[in-house]
Design brief:
499 residues, alpha/beta, Aldehyde Dehydrogenase, Chain A, domain 1, Aldehyde Dehydrogenase, Chain A, domain 2, seven-stranded mixed beta sheet, six-stranded mixed beta sheet, binds 1,4-dihydronicotinamide adenine dinucleotide, binds magnesium ion
């Protein structure tokens, strides 16, 4: 049992202040070496809720040395024992779900009922899932020659550098740190500038059971803190989620050290709705797929919806009616379905895409739901969801990742045309097909170019379902046993001549 166990703090503003000016290095909450901070803003109100520690190269140095020191014992611990500690993290995090949900709500503007609480619950569960996989770190025996025993052995890589974005900070943190730790690595994670608080608090909670230095958290900006982390000679592997542009920079920097990299980048995921699809299910699937409750801020967002001409108008009408019924409002209010965009920068970007679409020849913008009436939210970065029709697949709205609540519904005549257009994209993260015809469904699963293809459903990341894209959507997989084995261990071949 833990002595002096941390109690959940249910007032998110108080907790945000408590998290100010701190990094978590070697088990201790410390300010940045420079003592500098940056503002953390609640995007629903523009109120500054905290001043996060502004980490830089000097902090990276201290964190990587602490992680390297801790890795010596952590890597030698029996894998099941490491797993037991990681599972224990999951169990105690479970007692903090409500607290983490509230904190992530005030730093990201995501609605608590539809998003934040769900994310905090899945977050805790991923540590329980991976914690059970310690004894799966197996090698192989290789049939070579009589008298020669050839085996492979999986070993930890060392210190992992993890960089995450702001759209699902807890979930994305768990997908990186849980498998990395179970495999015997220690971790230095840099949070996103927009959402450093909840990740730090979660790490503080986990440090009640983890040995100091196993999991270290830095906050700071990309070039000043993320880049030195990737470049640090003590980092043996980088795992990154974020934009394609930054992913390429990270890949380039890692190539200079020849270290392995996992990249989970953007998407422009297609959803094909055939004329025979169950329309109600497909419409619900489009709402989940588009992540309207997360303001569309998801790399997996099903933002290109190809609908057969025979059902196109009915689909759009019913989809709009359902999104109209979703409530935009205070992210902390239980009645709210849709919160805010993360920041001014992202708000401006999303709004400029919508303006562009409104002026595109032939396009119609169907604005859904309604802006919150509450005066205290007047400065919030709220954007009404928009469904565009009359947009071609080669329009920039259908080509570029908007990362906002903007869906393009594109009409098609025949299946071949739908498959061709679905694959005509620089991305390849996820795809879905909606049909009652088994042959069409099976054919589409073979031909859609994406890391994850689903039929008649649009589920989000699930534990043990390998997740990761092809083309510009990235490199490698997350969330599964294979992801841990392939991306957080290295294999040694051992040959014993017994003759
Ligand atoms: P970003 O890719 O620039 O940031 C993600 C993370 O990388 C942050 O922690 C950031 O500090 C870090 N970073 C930035 N520059 C770095 C560098 N040179 N070296 C190392 N780390 C660095 O994404 P940003 O600016 O937040 O959003 C821009 C666009 O990226 C969005 O509009 C969206 O289209 C896309 N995006 C995709 C995400 C996904 O889940 N695949 C998540 C967030 C954004
Ligand atoms: Mg950026």
């Amino acid at each position: 049992m833990l002595q002096n166990r941390l109690e959940p703090v249910l007032d998110p503003r108080a907790l945000a202040r408590e998290m100010s000016n701190k990094l978590l290095i070697d088990g201790a909450m410390v300010p940045a070496v420079s003592r500098k901070t940056f503002k953390v803003v609640n995007p629903a109100t523009q109120e500054t809720v905290s001043e996060a520690a502004d980490g830089a190269a000097a902090d990276v140095d201290v964190a990587v040395s602490a992680a390297a020191k801790a890795q010596k014992a952590w890597g030698k611990m029996a894998p099941r024992e490491r797993g037991r500690l990681v599972q224990e993290c999951g169990r105690i995090l479970n007692d903090h779900v409500e607290e983490l949900a509230r904190l992530v709500t005030i730093e990201t503007g995501k609605a608590i009922r539809t998003e934040s609480r769900v994310e905090a619950g899945v977050f805790a569960d991923i540590f329980v899932f991976y914690g059970g996989l310690g004894s799966e770190l197996k090698g192989e025996t290789v049939p070579f020659k009589p008298g020669m025993l050839t085996i492979t052995q999986r070993e930890p890589i060392g210190v992992v550098g993890a960089i995450i974005p702001w759209n699902a900070p807890l979930l994305l943190m768990a997908l990186k740190v849980a498998p990395a730790m179970v495999a015997g690595n220690t971790v230095v994670l840099k949070s996103a500038e927009e959402a450093p608080l909840t990740v730090l608090r979660a790490c503080q909670i986990m440090n009640q059971v983890l040995p100091p230095g196993v999991l270290n958290i830095l906050s700071g900006d990309g070039p000043q803190c993320g880049a030195p982390l990737v470049a640090h000679k003590g980092i043996g592997k980088v795992t990154f989620t974020g934009s394609v542009e930054t992913g390429k920079l990270v890949y380039g920097a890692a190539s200079q050290k020849l270290i392995p990299v996992t990249l989970e980048l953007g998407g422009k995921s297609p959803m094909i709705v055939m004329g025979d699809a169950d329309l109600d299910k497909a419409i619900d699937g489009a709402i989940v797929g588009m992540r309207f409750t997360r303001q569309g801020q998801s790399c997996t967002a099903a933002s290109r919806i190809f609908v057969h001409e025979s059902i196109h108008d009915a689909f759009v009408k019913r989809l709009k009616a359902k999104v109209d019924a979703m409530k935009m409002g205070d992210p902390l209010d239980e009645k709210t379905d849709i919160g805010t965009i993360i920041s001014k920068q992202q708000y401006d970007k999303v709004v400029s895409y919508i303006r562009y679409g409104e002026n595109a020849p032939g396009a119609t913008a169907h604005r859904c739901s309604s802006m919150p009436a509450d005066a205290k939210l007047a400065k919030g970065y709220f954007v009404q969801p928009v469904i565009f029709t009359g947009i071609a697949n080669d329009n920039k709205l259908a080509r570029e990742e908007i990362f906002g609540p903007v869906a393009c519904v594109i009409k098609f005549k025949d299946y071949e045309e739908a498959i061709r257009q679905a694959n005509d994209t620089e991305y390849g993260l996820a795809a879905t097909i909606w049909t009652r015809d088994l042959k069409t469904a099976l054919d589409a699963t073979q031909r859609l170019e994406a890391g994850l293809v689903q039929v008649n459903q649009n589920l989000v990341v699930q534990a043990n379902m390998s997740y990761g894209g092809i083309k510009n959507s990235g490199l490698g997989k997350e969330a599964s046993l294979e992801a841990m084995l392939e991306h957080f261990t290295r294999k040694k071949t051992i040959v014993l001549n017994l003759g």
